[in-house]
Amino acid sequence: MTKYKLRSAALDVLLRVGDGGAFSHLLLDQTIKSNQVDKKDHALLTEVVYGTIQRKLTLEYFVANFVKKKHKLDPWVQWLLYLSFYQMVYLERVPTYAIINEAVGIAKERGHKGIASFVNGVLRQAQRTGFPTFDSIKGRDERLSIETSHPLWLVKRWIGYYGYEKTRSMCLANLETKPMSIRVQPMQLNQKEAIAELEQDGYEVAPSFFSEQGVIITKGNVLHSQLFQNNQVTIQDQSSMLVAEMMDLQEGMQVLDACSAPGGKTTHIAEKLNNTGGIYAYDLHEKKAKQVKQKAEALALTNIVAKAADSRQLDQYHAPQTFDRILIDAPCSGLGVVRGKPDIKYQKQEQDIHKLATIQTELLKKIAPLLRKDGKLLYSTCTVDREENEHVITAFLNEHAEFEVDPMFFETLPSDLRQSSGISAVGLQIFPDDFGTDGFFLTRLQRKNG
Ligand SMILES: C[S@@+](CC[C@H](N)C(=O)[O-])C[C@H]1O[C@@H](n2cnc3c(N)ncnc32)[C@H](O)[C@@H]1O
């Protein structure tokens, strides 16, 4: 694929993400497949698409500096300018003349000569004068919002919760590339063996302290490795791996996974049970339950029953105090994973958080009675927001005097996490700038005297 076609494909993805709201990682995978993008070009296409979305607010600010009536431009012209500016500012290895030539070619093909000459003029002016700094933006919060490309409401919300310095640090971390991590299938090999095999194949890797099954990939595309192709490892963020690690699982247990699709944590739980006991894995729709079944099959795990149901109604199928362990990996705003899924930060609105907090509270209220007397319930989200995390737990505990946070949860955390600034009386908030992982919240509840 020529570099020109590659950028044209990137523009198609951006247009659909920008205007249709489709998730970028899914669309990118489809584009790579349908355009038969060479393996060597995957990285550039991915970088241009993710980088442009990641920096969208900054790029809008740059474009507004050169084009007075930006809103009058067709969306594809706007995105072509963002895409080109992204490369000019952040991709030093791509020569500016090539970026301009290709943008002009795309503009000619999709529009007409007039648009091509407009695009040429804008890009050449930026090349001549350079890009504006952020100093002239009035207001500290506004400046942070544009400089790090996080919506102003989110910046203000995080500052309110965590202070300016922490917010700035999180916003900057969200612009960096996160190393991929994998979870080793323990019935096939262990962390040490996986590390040895990957190193032998030229990967640079390190063990994760979040999970004895976790391996961090610092160099190399693990999707191309034999271990991944043979289903001996699965892709999972380290924070997400901590969830099953903190469930205090033992062989033979009966487990409920109330929000299970696509099955990352269900299969981890199944592995920790060494394929014994039983896991009821629920999610809202048949299609989602199928994802869990497929993941279980791929990893040769047979202790999972995946079903479609609204988990707020599980009392119809299961008697009170049935399960040894329960996981509520709740639907959430996903603000802890914007580094890997940058479109989330523009799609989510503050009202979504309020709605999600209501669902989370309902899930907890309806599911907690299914926990056995001496059982443990783990609540987690992949978001950084007190309303969905600490406040949901606090409100639940205020209304359910028979439950408490399990003090052993804190004592059994990996030691680096025990020192973390995200520890509170009701759980652990992992921030995206703390350990190079996704932002996550987790806590463990039990019945008092349990
Ligand atoms: C954070 S995701 C779960 C990720 C999953 N635990 C994993 O590790 O792969 C939350 C899931 O909750 C599901 N969900 C939302 N509301 C639900 C409900 N009322 N009952 C059951 N599942 C629900 C969503 O469909 C979504 O798949």
TrEMBL record:
Its EC number is 2.1.1.176. It is found in: Cytoplasm. GO terms for molecular function: RNA binding; rRNA methyltransferase activity. The active site is at 382 (nucleophile). It catalyses: cytidine(967) in 16S rRNA + S-adenosyl-L-methionine = 5-methylcytidine(967) in 16S rRNA + S-adenosyl-L-homocysteine + H(+). This is 16S rRNA (cytosine(967)-C(5))-methyltransferase. It comes from the Bacteria. InterPro entries: MeTrfase_RsmB-F_NOP2_cat, MeTrfase_RsmB-F_NOP2_dom, NusB-like_sf, NusB_RsmB_TIM44, RCMT, rRNA_ssu_MeTfrase_B, RsmB-like_ferredoxin, RsmB/NOL1/NOP2-like_CS. SUPFAM superfamilies: NusB-like, S-adenosyl-L-methionine-dependent methyltransferases. The keyword Ribosomal protein does not apply. Specifically methylates the cytosine at position 967 (m5C967) of 16S rRNA. Signal peptide: none annotated. Keywords: Cytoplasm, Methyltransferase, RNA-binding, rRNA processing, S-adenosyl-L-methionine, Transferase. GO terms for cellular component: cytoplasm.
